[in-house]
Every structure is written in C-alpha cells, then in structure tokens.
Amino acid sequence: MKKNCATIELLLAEYASGDLADADRALVTRHLAGCAACRDELAREQRLREQLGALPPAVCPPAVTAAIRSAVRAETAARAAGRPRRRTRWIGAGAALGLAAAAVLLVAVLPERAPRSPGAVDVASIDSVTITDHDRDRARARRDVEWALSYTAGIVDRTEKESIAGVLRHLVTAGPSGS
Amino acid sequence: MLEEHRDRVYGHALYCLRDPDDAADLTQEAFLRLWRRGPEIDEPRLAAWLMRVVRNLCIDHVRRRRTVVVHFGRPDPDALDQLPDGDGPDTGPSHGVAQQESRREMMAALATLPPETRSIMLMHYWQGMKLHEIATALDLNLNSVKVRVHRARKALRAVLDEQAAETATAKRMNG
Ligand SMILES: [Zn+2]
Fold first, then answer.
1. Which of B28, B35, B146 is nearest residue A10 as measured by Cβ atoms?
2. Each residue of B148-163: pLDDT tens digit?
3. pLDDT in tens, B4-16
4. Which of A49, A53, A168, B103 is deepest in the core (most CB within 10 A)?
5. Domains of chain A: which residue ranges?
6. Where are the alpha helices (DSSP H) in A110-174?
C-alpha cells in the first residue's frame, strides 16, 4: 500500500486540476476511496491550489512597457547604424573588476586602440574597442577579448567568472550579425 | 505581443523575486531577448518560450543575489502590497488586510523553495499551465515535474503550517 500511495501522490496535482487521463483518474479515485492518508494529501493539495491561485494577477507597470519599447528602438537604431547595443546594466562589482583586468590585458594585445589608463575600471573603453572598429578589426578584437576573458577568468572566483562571461558575451557577440 | 504576455512575465518575476524593480528589469530583459530572436519563435511556442526565459532569468538572479543578501538584507517584504487587491464583491478594508497577510505568508513560503521549483509552482498553480506543458516548456521529464510539485507541496505546507502555529502563539500571547 505504501508504494501505491507514493504513486498516487504524484498524480494528485493533476487529479485536482482535472488534467489526468481517464485511466489514471479512475486509478486515483479508486485508491482515494480506500486510503485516508491520500485523501488528506488531496485536501492539502486543494488548499494549496486555492491559496496559490488566489494570488492576484500582476500588472506590468506602464513604465516597464515603455522601457522595453525604448530599449528595442535603441537596439534597432544601433543595428541600423552598424553598431551593436551597449548593455552594461548587469555589471556587478565582481564583473567590473574582471573587466578592469580584461582592460589591462587589452592594453597589451591592442595597444593602438586600448585605453591609456589601464588602472581605471573603464567599461566604456572596452565597448569602444569592440564596437567602433571595422568588421575585420572587430573579429580580431573579439578573439582578443575572448582570450583576455579566459585569462582573466582564472583569477576571479566562479561566480564572478560567470558574470564576466555573461557581460563579455554581450559585448563580443553584439553586432549587426550577432544574435 | 508585448501587451499579450507582459503581465504574465512580469507577474512571474515579481512573485518569484518579490522585488518590483528586479521584476521590471527581468521583464525588460526577457522581451529584449524575444525581440532579438525575432521570427525564430513562432506564435504557438511564444508563451512557453517566454516562461522558460523568465524562469531562467529568475534562477540566475536568485543565485547572483544570494551573496548580496548577506550584505544588504532580504528582499522587500512589502512588495506584495503593491499588487492590486482582488476586486470581488466582498473586498472590504478588513478583508484586504487579511488577504495581504495571507499573500505575504504565501510569498514568504514560496521564497523558501529553490528558484527552479518556485517557478514550476507559479506556472502550474498561479498561471494555470498543465504539468506536461511545463515539462515541454522547460525541457524536463514530466515525471520529474510531478516529483518537484509533490515535494514542493509538502515543503510549502510545512512552512505555512509553521507560520500558522507562530501566528496562533502570538495571538495567545497578546490576548
Ligand atoms: Zn494512499
């Protein structure tokens, strides 16, 4: 009976929502008739369904809709102008640190285009390296940034590595041909 | 398209994260991703695709925030107060207070679940997605979704029962 209950319990959510196929539904109904424990579990399921279902619908604020529209417009304009989007919003302290390190490395690999004060956390300068060059140079810069990323990633912790990877992916994959 | 899906996306993020600003950011990110993918996502798969994206964004966000919470405190517990009240005929002032309290407890209970499971619970119980639809949207095995829902139900009930016991004790102490 115990093993049977475990099987039935897994079906209770769909039983309560009316989504079970006839055969399973009949199986559950039969079991419930003879099992008080599963009837209790069904009651808990129904109570939870009521409570979670009673959470009111949320309304997306108009300002958010407006922000989405304007972000889309900005990206459209940037693509039309042959420049990828700039999104630095998600950069946290850890990622900024990593970017600073990446910037230092970029000084080494792209001396003619890199920022002259590598000590500063100059995210915009990395943007300009990867964004404003011609296609051929952009491809090279992209490889360089990826190399700098893999090097930098080794000296920061895993969480930071992930944010840096995310941020740099944004920067290096952005572009008219990017996704 | 934006009008049709934005409330679900925003609501999912809001209930998942309990922070209107974060929910707004995630909603924007989700729709930007959709826009970038463009015609790749056909209309029938759109809702499921958006749910998958917002769920992934929520999970990432919770993971990132975990380290921050230590320094800057918990998410805003009053975020729920900004939600609209039910507009049923019996909505009066005292009803509203009880309703808000109950929402707050449910939100606090939800927040104890891992974000992956939290999203599944919201999709099924709040957004009315069927379990097999959730499995498809999230590329999960149906049985694994059933197991998660079952475990989450037990976990939520345990937290809610504990909250109820605490409230009862507090009332006895005050009364
Ligand atoms: Zn049973």
1. B146
2. 999 999 999 899 888 8
3. 899 999 999 999 9
4. A168
5. 5-53, 59-88, 90-173
6. 123-131, 135-153, 158-173
